[in-house]
């Protein structure tokens, strides 16, 4: 290509290149039915392997998510149990003894004092 090429010159070279490429393509030997079937079987096998790998990866991800959710649920249950135990302990320490409990404690104290004096 030179600086003085015209549009017709470039168009002619382009058409020649297209013809040459088409001739080159036509001269290539055609694949036999056996080779085509072999390529197709190989492609299908490769696609099946890839699909199996994707399914395994998806299953692993789902298992990891389920394990994380299970751990989170166990942690929340443990926290709830600890909070309930703390609440029960606080409630027990703040509870006011009933009249029967006060009478039983007083009677036990008097009985202990009598036992010491004897």
How would you describe this structure to a colleague?
The protein is built from 3 helices and no strands. The chain has 118 residues and is mainly α. The protein has one domain (32-117). The longest helix is centred in the middle third of the chain and has 62 residues, at 33-94.
| Unreliable spans | none
**Mean pLDDT across every amino acid position:** 91
Structural class: mainly alpha
Q: Summarize the biggest pleated sheet.
A: none
The portion of residues assigned to helices is over 70%
Count of helical segments?
A: 3
Number of strands: 0
How many domains? The number is: 1
- Gap from first CA to last CA: 132 Å
H-E order: HHH
Strand and helix layout:
Layout: H1 7-27, H2 33-94, H3 99-117
Kindly summarize this structure in a few lines:
The chain is an all-alpha fold. The chain contains three helices and no strands. Helices cover 86% and strands 0% of the residues.
Keywords:
118 residues, mainly alpha, 3 helices, 86% helix, rod-shaped
């Amino acid at each position: 290509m030179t600086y003085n090429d015209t549009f017709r010159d470039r168009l002619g070279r382009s058409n020649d290149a297209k013809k040459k490429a088409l001739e080159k393509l036509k001269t290539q030997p055609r694949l036999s039915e056996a080779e085509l079937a072999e390529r197709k079987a190989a492609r299908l096998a490769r696609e099946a392997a890839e699909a199996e790998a994707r399914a395994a990866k998806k299953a692993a991800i789902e298992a990891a998510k389920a394990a994380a959710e299970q751990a989170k649920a166990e942690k929340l249950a443990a926290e709830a149990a600890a909070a309930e135990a703390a609440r029960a302990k606080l409630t027990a320490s703040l509870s006011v003894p009933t009249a029967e409990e006060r009478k039983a404690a007083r009677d036990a104290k008097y009985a202990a004092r009598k036992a010491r004096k004897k």
